Amino acid sequence: MSGATEGVLVERLSAWYGRVQALKEVDMDVPPNRVTAVIGPSGCGKSTLIRCFNRMHETISAARVCGKVILNGVDIYSPEVDPVQIRRSVGMVFQRPNPFPTMSIFDNVAAGIKLTRFHRGSELAESVERSLRRAALWDEVKDKLKDSGVALSGGQQQRLCIARALAVDPGVLLMDEPCSALDPIASYKIEELITELRGDYTIVIVTHNMQQASRVADHTAFMLAGEDGIGKLVEFGETKQVFTNPRDKRTEDYITGRFG
Amino acid sequence: MTIVREGMKIISATKKRSRLRGENLPDVTFRLVALAFAGLIVLLVLAMAIAMAKSSWPAIQQFGLGFLVGRTWDPVFKNFGALPFIYGTIVSSLLALLLAVPVSLGSAIFLAELAPAWVRGPISLMIELLAAIPSVVFGIWGIFVLNPWLRTSVEPMLGNNFGFFPLFQGPMYGLGMLSAGLILAIMIVPTITAISREVLMAVPNSQREAMLALGATRWEMISKAVVSYARPGIVGAVVLGLGRAVGETMAVTMVIGNRHEISASLFAPGHTMASVIANEFSEATYNLYLAALVETGLVLLFVTILLNALARLLVWRIAGGPKGAQRE
Lengths: 260, 328
Prior knowledge:
The complex is a heterodimer.
Chain A: E1 8-17, E2 20-30, E3 35-39, H1 46-51, E4 63-71, E5 74-75, H2 83-89, E6 90-93, H3 105-116, H4 121-134, H5 138-141, H6 154-166, E7 172-176, H7 184-197, E8 202-206, H8 210-216, E9 219-225, E10 231-238, H9 239-244, H10 249-255
Parallel strand pairs in A: 3-8, 3-9, 6-7, 7-8
Antiparallel strand pairs in A: 1-2, 1-4, 4-5, 9-10
Helix pairs in contact in A: 3-4, 3-6, 4-6, 6-7
Chain B: H1 2-21, H2 25-55, H3 57-63, H4 66-69, E1 73-74, E2 79-80, H5 83-114, H6 117-132, H7 135-162, H8 177-201, H9 205-213, H10 218-247, H11 250-255, H12 273-280, H13 287-319
Antiparallel strand pairs in B: 1-2
């Protein structure tokens, strides 16, 4: 496993969908090999923020970004950087499990490795097994690797997607509300898995579940859309501090349930 | 009569079921009316097949299975074999598919995945317009534009460069199998393109994002995530195109050259089942001749059904994906 040596440094990051601004001047220093949660009410730009970390934001038509995201010393938005390479070192897991329905479980995990074209059959099988073990799914699927990925339960599908993302050895793993489509037990398993992966990967998880953030995250970022509807970072700090002793009044209001 | 018995069975089963579900009278009436209409369609097809079998009976009796493998079609000596037409239908349709599928898939992928919005609308509209052109217009265009071009440019080029293949040998008339295949290809491109485009656009965005997030290029995303997800629908689109090519009559009759012989060369004139019926039914002066033509129609009906069934099987086998796969 290639652990991330550096985190993600965000400088004055703004993002737009066409003319609508979604993020304004976010500054943030995501620490390496730790879990960072991004919380906040719906529409505050949390998903937009992490989609800027692997340049997925710009895949939406008319979407654009201004500012810097520095990964391993390189600004991923500088012109000579290829977004395809960035996405190989920054994995992503989405809100709804999205395995490839025409592929088997094995092929789902192997999909990313096959894109790089530097693989041999035996190495491929090893990487697939290793990724499935990392995603705590191996024991459940080892006898049916040739079955379709969509035949699994929702929670298993999400862990399959995590295995798929881990298979290409990313240093950073982005998770966009990975439990929002899952039942509590499946969510618990994903949380357990995040705790397992902590230390080897820089994980950024978007969640609107504050308990989840306080359980899994070392650091927490609280975001809020202002009067103008544009998302801003309100507070960023160690999870314990953000939840017990917030510096900002708005953070306190949110975590004590006064709004949102 | 079996159908009536089956129908009664369904009605009584329906009654039982509806009592269990506590359905009311309007529901039951609706169910029965829908059943009647569905049954009507089945009856229509059966009635048609029976009527055709009846009027082709003299030919069936006279030639038996020999009709399907007989290579002579001679109204003067009252000897009829339909193999040249079966061959012609299969070859012209396959040729049309060979030419049309790459073009259609390419334009469908362009329209669904690559084209900017302002290009997408006009091009889609034009492709749909192509489907609305009456086939006789295609035929006229074939005779006056396509055939001279084939005769003077395409066929000499193919003959000079690939003349060692039997496919590209012999005299070049312009009229012939190649011409029919090309016209058919142009006619089925809109069908295949329009449906494939719809199917591609229906692929959920989450699939595209999943592939992109793994570090796929745009091309890898399209080929590995989008097209493979859409494969069953694309196969369906191709089958529909094939169905149109097999049954197409007017344009083919006008350009295929109308000869009752099997020739290995694509340059040679031929006949399809549809074109021979259209061409000759008005000249069928005696009963056996007419019966032979109707039997050709019957064979065409069966070939169409067979092709559709085969394609359906292909969709199940190939596109079904790994065990347990099902769409969300």
